[in-house]
């Protein structure tokens, strides 16, 4: 049984353990698959690469990527799934027994329990706006990413999609609601290069009899999907040493 975590992470752990127990970890695949598939295509994963799935939840995207980086002429790739919820991690492990190139670890994005300069690519789906100290998480990502490693942060909750803000009061934990421009500036401040932002519409159909609990109407849900999620992409520069903006916590 894991011990406790610093207070803000402990709160997230408790909340997402509750989500996991309600089966929401597996359910999220249905909601996030369309935008995640588009993102994974942009990641251009190759056999042999080392990938981090930050805030992996029940691990469906981790498995999707593990199938793409497994054994090939360029070696044997692996995917590490990290989540603050030990119940999500338990379920992810259980569902991934057939994979020998996945490792799920319980831990916080604020203190990634991994060595420096390791990951070729990082994906984080619908998790980044929950991190109380996003600056610290970016410093941690910079540390564990390989030189010239690529970062893909995909989030559905941000200022430029006004329909997404309906969740702010519904969620039981505090969230960040930055704009696309603010996120780009944040990544640049953390010495990432080639920082870009794009909107990823969710093209999955919304049937007329779909029951939405989050949105005021089906029209709002459709508008939310049309505007789409925010995908932030960036590269770590070709350095092994800490970059100027890097802070050791
Ligand atoms: C909305 S869910 C998305 C899960 C998964 N990426 C998906 O799309 O199905 C957010 C996830 O982020 C995780 N999370 C939140 N705060 C975290 C933190 N500080 N460190 C690591 N994971 C965190 C939660 O436990 C949860 O599993």
Question: How is this fold's topology laid out?
Answer:
Layout: H1 7-21, H2 24-43, E1 50-54, H3 60-69, E2 78-83, H4 86-95, E3 102-106, E4 119-125, H5 134-144, E5 145-155, H6 180-189, E6 193-200, H7 218-227, E7 229-235
Parallel strand pairs: 1-2, 1-4, 2-3, 4-5
Antiparallel strand pairs: 5-7, 6-7
The structure holds S-adenosylmethionine (SAM).
Residues 9, 12, 16, 28, 32, 55-57, 61, 82-85, 88, 108-110, 125-127, 130-131 line the site of S-adenosylmethionine.
How much helicity do the residues have? 25-40%
- Summed over residues and divided by their number, the pLDDT gives a mean of 94
Total E-strand runs? 7
Q: What is the assigned CATH homologous superfamily?
A: Vaccinia Virus protein VP39
CATH architecture: 3-Layer(aba) Sandwich
Based on Cα principal axes, name the global outline: globular
Question: What is the number of helices?
Answer: 7
Q: Widest sheet: strand order?
A: 3-2-1-4-5-7-6
Strand content: 15-25%
Give me the strand/helix succession: HHEHEHEEHEHEHE
The kinds of small molecule bound in this structure are: S-adenosylmethionine
Which fold name is given in CATH as the topology?
A: Rossmann fold
Radius of gyration of CA atoms, rounded to a whole number? 17 Å
Report, as a whole number of angstroms, the end-to-end distance. 27 Å
Task: Note the main sheet.
Answer: 7 strands, mixed
Structural class: alpha/beta
**Structural domain tally:** 1
CATH first level: Alpha Beta
Weakly predicted, low-confidence segments:
none
